[in-house]
Amino acid sequence: MAEHLASIFGTEKDRVNCPFYFKIGACRHGDRCSRLHNRPTISPTILMANMYQNPLLNAPLGPDGLPIRVDPRAAQEHFEDFYEDVFEELAAHGELENLNVCDNFADHMVGNVYAKFRDEDAAARALTALQGRYYDGRPIIVEFSPVTDFREATCRQYEENTCNRGGYCNFMHLKPISRELRKKLFGRYKRRERSRSPRRDRGDRGDRGDRRERDRDWDRGDRDRGRGRSRSRSRERGGGDRRRETSEERRAKIAAWNTERDGSAGGGGGGGW
């Protein structure tokens, strides 16, 4: 009996536990679902619900009452700015294996950001650090997620451009990032692996010191490459040498906005980046 229950757990045959919550960490029925949502108390994956605000979905209305058209290239650059900001913030707490942003339209999935760390301790540190904070003036809603295998959570038809459910599909439609940005962000871990020093066996204290030093070196390199990427993209759009804001500048601007907002509200409200 126990083997049978284990074999159907989280599947459509399971009449007790919600298979959608188990697979994608979200359910269109929410708390009204007739099946249980077993929320993990610890996981390598955290979910930041409805965090990404897609400019294509939030475009202001024009004089004709229709949404103003947003340039898809500008929208992709907006997304990659957001992606880089979130990655840099989370990477301070541990090594990231996956950072995925949903392109779905349904309320329970729109703008969902899933971050899977290499270990549960890093995920716990990130969750604690994000609680009570803001991004772009909006509170961050963060929780542990049961999703650990994104292959099971992702819509295969979407990846093949054949999904007929569109943005209201109940499986993840993940927004892609450029190969250049992926190499820049996730490539750091390969570089650290190659550059590990034999001194790391001196103990945790020495390892942490070496790691912090390598992180600072990498961060300086990232900022330099980020500025180069901004200039090249600006030239492609015909903008001459105009430079896009770096992640640090954007985080400083958002933090200043939150400080001003909290001050006008009489204090409280959490921090932002």
UniProtKB/TrEMBL annotation:
GO cellular component: spliceosomal complex; U2AF complex
InterPro entries: Nucleotide-bd_a/b_plait_sf, RBD_domain_sf, RRM_dom, RRM_euk-type, U2AF_small, Znf_CCCH
Entry keywords, A to Z: DNA-binding, Metal-binding, mRNA processing, mRNA splicing, Nucleus, Repeat, RNA-binding, Zinc, Zinc-finger
One family name in Pfam for this protein: zf-CCCH
MF terms (GO), sorted A to Z: DNA binding; pre-mRNA 3'-splice site binding; zinc ion binding
Primary site of residence: nucleus
PROSITE patterns: RRM, ZF_C3H1
Gly residues bias spans: 264-273
Zn-finger segments (C3H1-type): 12-40, 149-176
Residue ranges that the Swiss-Prot or TrEMBL entry lists as coiled coil: none
Biased segments, Basic and acidic residues type: 195-252
Subcellular location: Nucleus
Domain of life assignment: Eukaryota
Any GO BP annotation: mRNA splicing, via spliceosome
Region (Disordered): 188-273
PANTHER family xref list: U2 SNRNP AUXILIARY FACTOR, SMALL SUBUNIT (PTHR12620)
Protein name: Uncharacterized protein
Lineage, opening ranks: Eukaryota, Viridiplantae, Chlorophyta, core chlorophytes, Chlorophyceae
